[in-house]
Amino acid sequence: MKTINAQLAGCWSLSVLIVCLLTGLKSQAQTVLTVTGEVTKPLTLQTADLTAMAHTQVTGKDRDGKDHQYSGILVVDLLKQAGATVGGELRGENLTKYVIVKAIDGYEVLFALPELDAEFASRSIILADSVDGASLGPGVGPYRIVVPGEKKPARWIREVKSIEVRFAK
Amino acid sequence: MRFWIGSFIVAVVLSGVCAWTVADDPVPAGPYTLLYPASFGGRFTIPADNPMTQEGVYLGRLLFYEPKLSSTQTISCASCHQQARAFTDGLALSIGVHGKTTRRNSMSLTNLLWVRQLFWDGRSTSLEEQALVPLGHTDEMGSKPGEAAKALQKTIPYPVLFKQVFGSDTITDVRISKALAQFERTLISANSRYDQYAAGQYQLTESEQRGMQLFNRSPSPERNVRGGNCAHCHGGAKLFQELFHNNGLDKQATDSGRQAITGLALDQGRFRVPTLRNIALTAPYMHDGRFNSLEKVLDHYSEHIQPSPMLAPELAGQPNGFHLTTGEKTDLISFLRLFTDSTFIHNPQFANPH
């Protein structure tokens, strides 16, 4: 049994490596995240763009019930860069705006703009690219939303590929 | 899990086309009313340029069963989508006009109103757009652009019907696809035993009860919880979640699936999670029809899940699967059988009108 497991683990890491190499080579020029919708400057970002942005550290409890250190970009910073109505502009009808975050597997979750804005919310919601100092694993990364303090991590959407700002109609 | 309270939502879709009634005309006319349980939710859009009308649905149904749409005049949509099999065809791969097989397994046409990304790889975003694919595909109906429209134009009844639906007797491929889409939106299945159970009108047997627990729970050996985590991907009132996953059929997928659409390496060998509605009627299973029974599907999830970097994390937890006992497999299958909706497969509104 042990040897089988070891073999499996071996295959696993080898194939991860191959895929990482493949994705690594491809991702040089590949869009990894888009920020679109009710924004003035829609963004199509590559890995390097996101790596270069300011990172914030937060602690959060994953499904395993343990605290982990996540590092990533404040979602509100991405929204600011795209020219969404955050900060001083978040009032009036702009309070009926929300964000839909989509994953590669089709999963979608919603945040109201004030949940993400530092002038409203006391917690920092980030687009994490690492956990406990390591990049996020297959099926989780490359990017995952982390909502510190939320009791159930169902909105910690994995494999994030797009963020869209919309008006509630 | 959400339960619906027996209340049906009535969505009256207002027609842009005026509903004239000609004396002695048997064709029903006027806005079409969609009926569905509240728990299914209203997350769907009907294109503004194709509002649902009774005459549109009537025409769509005639077209769905019309072999004149194919280049050989021998194959209709219903050849590969048969009502008795919840609109599948019982084959691993379907056979088109030239006797060649399709690339993938025919899909059940059920509750399409709520599907936003059609096909196994999600490449089509509306039923109107989708219908033109089988119409023109050489391994399906093989009609050249305009060919099917021309064949129908020559008939007696169709020009009259198109005039009633679209205000003009000119038949085009686009109008054919619009009418087909209207009919397909009416294919709602909401009266299986499972729906009746959710509405408090059916009591589960002990085996079905155990099967439901396995379906809904995620396994946790520490807490001694058994489960197959099926609901994570196949759960909800509609037994459908619009997700794309690799469920471990192959270590190295030969059909790249979703990747061919998105170009993302992480999408390699991912396919849309199919609905489990009427699953006992829609064998063979999976995008290539590789399993001919539910027993084989459960053997897969139990013992043969192939590890790969694309494998969905919910299935990667234990090596090769959930290791279900024979009794657990029996229970799960008895639960899956509750998804059969016999009123759907016998609904005269969906049957061959010719």
From TrEMBL, chain A:
InterPro entries attached here?
A: OxRdtase_Mopterin-bd_dom (IPR000572), OxRdtase_Mopterin-bd_sf (IPR036374)
Among Pfam families, the record links this protein to: Oxidored_molyb (PF00174)
Annotated Gene3D superfamilies:
Oxidoreductase, molybdopterin-binding domain
Which positions make up the signal peptide?
Answer: 1-29
Domain named Oxidoreductase molybdopterin-binding is located at 32-165
Q: Which UniProt keywords apply?
A: Signal
Source domain of life:
Bacteria
According to UniProt, the name of this protein is Oxidoreductase molybdopterin-binding domain-containing protein
Q: Which organism is it from?
A: Spirosoma endophyticum
From TrEMBL, chain B:
Ranges for domain Cytochrome c: 206-340
Q: Which note does the record give on the cofactor?
A: Binds 2 heme groups.
Post-translational modification here is noted as: Binds 2 heme groups per subunit.
Spell out the InterPro entries in the cross-references. Answer: Cyt_c-like_dom, Cyt_c-like_dom_sf, Cytochrome_c_Peroxidase/MauG, Di-haem_cyt_c_peroxidsae, MauG/Cytc_peroxidase
Which UniProt keywords are present, listed alphabetically? Heme, Iron, Metal-binding, Oxidoreductase, Periplasm, Peroxidase, Signal
UniProt-listed PROSITE patterns: CYTC
Name-wise, this protein is Cytochrome c peroxidase
Species of provenance: Spirosoma endophyticum
